[in-house]
UniProtKB/TrEMBL annotation:
It comes from the Eukaryota. Residues 12-91 form the GST N-terminal domain. Pfam families: GST_C, GST_N. This is GST N-terminal domain-containing protein. One of its GO terms (cellular component) is cytoplasm. GO terms for biological process: glutathione metabolic process. Belongs to the GST superfamily. It comes from Aegilops tauschii. PROSITE patterns: GST_NTER (PS50404).
Length: 203
């Protein structure tokens, strides 16, 4: 497929099944935004999953699922890499071009998932000056932490204690893909309050 085929691609050829509260769905939406991809978004009720979702992800039966020209791609990290490759001619790169840097980005994502740690190292974002793979994988941290701080009334991430992390969170929330698809924090707060109350009542 050449570049002209991509540029003339109709939005209905790309469909994303998601759920508004899922950070994994947001990660995919941010990736699509970086690439400037038009798509149809289908909001799923996970208590009553649609036939289409179950058909296209019959193994895990969860969101997100990206449908590209009728072919489903599941799992958020896999979808993000697929988006980067399928629309490599558009927008910024999500994975670095250099093979070694690309391998390191994947390693960081795995490390983050396993250890939930972060080290920006003085850069604006993990790979440099723009949002890329590792930033997308950590994206939920940028809005969940401040929301949870408000709910419990305690500052967890301060500029004094975590200057690099605090600065990264601010830059990420101010980045174009996040502004295109901002997390619905006000709708999320009641869920997190209820989760906290349930946890406290367990004792």
């Amino acid at each position: 497929m050449d570049d002209d085929d991509h540029q003339e691609e109709a939005p209905e050829q790309v469909k994303l099944f998601g759920m508004w509260a899922s950070p994994y769905v947001l990660k995919v939406r941010w990736a699509l935004s970086i690439k400037g991809v038009e798509y149809e978004y289908v909001e799923e009720d996970l208590r009553n999953k649609s036939h289409d979702l179950l058909e296209h992800n019959h193994v895990h039966k969860k969101v997100p699922v990206l449908l590209y020209r009728g072919i489903p791609v599941a799992e958020s990290d896999v979808i993000v890499e697929f988006v980067d490759e399928a629309w490599s001619h558009r927008g910024g790169r999500i994975l670095p071009d250099d093979p070694h840097e690309r391998a390191m980005a994947r390693l960081w994502v795995r490390f983050v998932h396993d250890k939930e740690l972060i080290a920006v190292g003085g850069k604006d974002f993990f790979a440099g000056e723009s949002v890329e793979l590792v930033d997308l994988s950590l994206g939920a941290l940028a809005y969940v932490v401040p929301m949870y701080e408000e709910i419990i009334g305690v500052r967890l991430v301060t500029e004094e204690r975590f200057p690099s992390l605090s600065a990264w969170m601010g830059r990420f929330l101010d980045s174009p893909p996040v502004k295109d698809h901002p997390p619905l924090v006000e709708r999320l707060k009641p869920r997190y309050r209820a989760m906290r109350e349930a946890f406290l009542n367990m004792g």
